[in-house]
């Protein structure tokens, strides 16, 4: 889904742009995927799994997401660099069309600058524009206190837990929490 472009000022005074990804962003997106995966143990993918993403597959992904009626992806660009991205995907079946899943990630150098809040505000705006959508859902890994604080600030509440859903590199397990926000 194509959305509006939104410019805003970061807490450090720099300018940022939230917008749909474009084919020219693919090299930066590939770099961002590997970097963000290596900076946080709370991201589902690991750096070694990022080899499956190719320039060709990313171009196709960008095209598909921008053409979708039920999904939207935004990238955040700061100083010509991809700082992060977020996605919202609406369920398409009749019994679950009232629900949408979201995801968000940033590289570490951009944490704490207001990008996550700006992304969430835009995802909420998109969700509110979808007829019949009544709730947004997301998951986070136990111990990810920064993400949890942001999600709660944006109105999400824990509604369920998946025990031992993530096996970490050290062999330990972490729970996954499911959060929901009513619109």
**CATH topology (level 3) name:** Aminopeptidase
Reading the helices and strands in chain order gives EEHHEEEHEHEE
Instruction: Report the top-level CATH class.
Output: Alpha Beta
Shape estimate: globular
CATH architecture: 3-Layer(aba) Sandwich
- Strand order, sheet with most strands: 1-2-3-4-5-6-8-7
Blueprint (SSEs and pairs):
Layout: E1 6-9, E2 15-19, H1 26-39, H2 55-67, E3 71-78, E4 81-90, E5 99-106, H3 115-128, E6 135-141, H4 145-153, E7 157-167, E8 173-182
Parallel strand pairs: 5-6
Antiparallel strand pairs: 1-2, 2-3, 3-4, 4-5, 6-8, 7-8
Helix pairs in contact: 1-2
Distinctive features:
34% strand; single chain; 8 strands; 27% helix; Aminopeptidase; 183 residues; globular; alpha+beta; eight-stranded mixed sheet
What does this structure look like?
With 183 residues, the protein is an alpha+beta fold. The protein has one domain (6-135): Aminopeptidase, CATH 3.40.630.30. Helix content is 27%, strand content 34%. The protein has 4 helices and 8 strands; from the N terminus they run E-E-H-H-E-E-E-H-E-H-E-E. The protein has helices at 26-39, 55-67, 115-128, 145-153; strands at 6-9, 15-19, 71-78, 81-90, 99-106, 135-141, 157-167, 173-182. The chain has an 8-stranded mixed β-sheet, sandwiched between helices. Strand 3 (71-78) and strand 4 form a beta hairpin. The chain starts with 5 loop residues before the first strand and ends with a strand. The mean pLDDT is 95.
């Amino acid at each position: 889904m194509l959305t509006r472009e939104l410019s805003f000022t970061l807490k450090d005074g720099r300018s940022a742009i939230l917008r749909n990804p474009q084919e020219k962003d693919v090299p930066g997106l590939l770099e961002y995927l590997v970097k963000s995966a290596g900076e946080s143990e709370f991201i589902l993918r690991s750096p070694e799994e990022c080899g499956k993403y190719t320039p060709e597959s990313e171009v196709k992904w960008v095209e598909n997401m921008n053409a979708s009626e039920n999904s939207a992806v935004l990238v955040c660009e700061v100083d010509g660099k991809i700082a992060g991205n977020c996605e919202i995907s609406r369920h398409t079946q009749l019994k679950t069309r009232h629900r949408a899943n979201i995801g968000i990630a940033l590289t570490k150098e951009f944490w704490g600058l207001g990008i996550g809040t700006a992304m969430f505000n835009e995802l909420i705006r998109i969700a509110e524009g979808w007829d019949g959508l009544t709730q947004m859902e997301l998951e986070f890994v136990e111990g990810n206190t920064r993400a949890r604080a942001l999600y709660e600030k944006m109105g999400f509440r824990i509604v369920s837990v998946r025990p031992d859903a993530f096996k970490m590199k050290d062999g330990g397990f972490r729970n996954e929490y499911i959060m929901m926000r009513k619109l």
